[in-house]
Design brief:
By secondary structure, the protein is α+β, with helices and mostly antiparallel strands. 61% of the residues lie in helices and 15% in strands. It has three domains: 89 residues, Imidazole glycerol phosphate dehydratase, domain 1 (Ribosomal Protein S5, domain 2, 2-Layer Sandwich); 45 residues, no CATH class; 136 residues, no CATH class. It has eight helices and six strands, in the order βββαββααβααααα. α1 links the parallel β3 and β4. It starts with 5 loop residues before the first strand and ends with a helix.
């Protein structure tokens, strides 16, 4: 079981190339990946997203990448002759307009002029950069998953503990449920006897008690709750559980609400309301799971 919250860091240092990757993940209904990296890594941004998607299934993940490239490599300079010509012609017109000014137009002047000379970035794939990025990202993902697993195991222990409480409350309701109709029959008999002065139509009493028992029967709800508890514990042993448990908790709530509406008994209602409180706590915790 994995939490969606975590942090992971990975580094690559080799041959003058230093790459650092930091991952931060928080809760999100789906997988959302945000990549922040230097311009030089723009061609590899989709590769980063793909690797993250292969490793994670849910959560908002921020990816921060830093690069320090100390490698010795050939650099090419591009000279924009049109721009240089424009600067030279502009200097010539200024000289004609202001003949008293000293004309210091030189090659050095043109080299320093904006946009005349610029460095050309290599267009071919940088295999060393791509490999270093993958290794740094791989290390960061491993660290992130380790933290998410640790947090997930903590959440698992909490969820199973709350499920134990829910199971205990269900057992109390199941123990109390058969007594409700019998108590109703006794109270009905007492009231009718008191009202009629000792004359009781036993068949009418039994009929009324049977109708009441049918209306407040919660055997099916208790059976489904027992099944949900077993399924919940089973799912908790799987690695990716968030969506499954989220759906199952909705079923828990549905059965619990039905018990509250049908029970017609203060003690059962109190147990059911306590169960609903635990179910809500479980639902909140599930929002943190992958």
């Amino acid at each position: 079981m994995y939490s969606m919250t975590g942090f992971g860091k990975g580094d690559f240092r080799e041959g003058g190339l230093e790459i650092g990757v930091e991952l931060k993940s928080v809760n999100n209904r789906f997988l959302d990946v945000s990549v922040k990296c230097p311009h030089i890594l723009n061609p590899y941004e989709e590769t980063v997203r793909t690797l993250v998607r292969e490793s994670l299934s849910r959560g908002h993940v921020d990816v921060f990448v830093s690069v320090l490239d100390k490698r010795e490599k050939e650099r090419k300079l591009y000279v924009d002759l049109a721009a240089a010509r424009a600067y030279a012609e502009a200097a010539k017109r200024l000289k004609e307009t202001f003949p008293d000014l000293v004309d210091d137009t030189t090659v050095t002047f043109l080299l320093k002029s904006p946009d005349v000379v610029r460095t050309e970035e290599p267009t071919e794939a940088d295999e060393a950069l791509a490999e270093g990025l993958k290794r740094a990202l791989g290390a960061a993902l491993a660290a992130l998953k380790a933290m998410r697993l640790k947090e997930g195991e903590r959440l698992k222990a909490d969820l199973l503990s709350r499920m134990e409480t829910i199971a205990e409350l269900r057992a109390k309701i199941a123990e109390r449920a058969p007594l409700v109709s019998e108590e109703y029959r006794k109270k009905l008999t007492e009231r009718v006897t008191e009202f009629l002065g000792g004359k009781v139509d036993e068949s009418r009493i039994l009929t009324e008690a049977a109708v009441f028992a049918d209306k407040c029967n919660i055997d099916e709800e208790l059976t489904r709750l027992a099944s949900h508890i077993t399924e919940f514990r089973k799912i908790c042993e799987e690695p990716i559980v968030g969506r499954k448990l989220d759906f199952l908790v909705q079923e828990f709530n549905r059965e619990c609400n039905t018990v509250c509406s049908k029970s017609n008994d203060a003690r059962i209602t109190a147990f059911a309301l306590e169960m609903k409180n635990e179910i809500e706590k479980v639902r909140e915790q599930i929002q943190n799971l992958e």
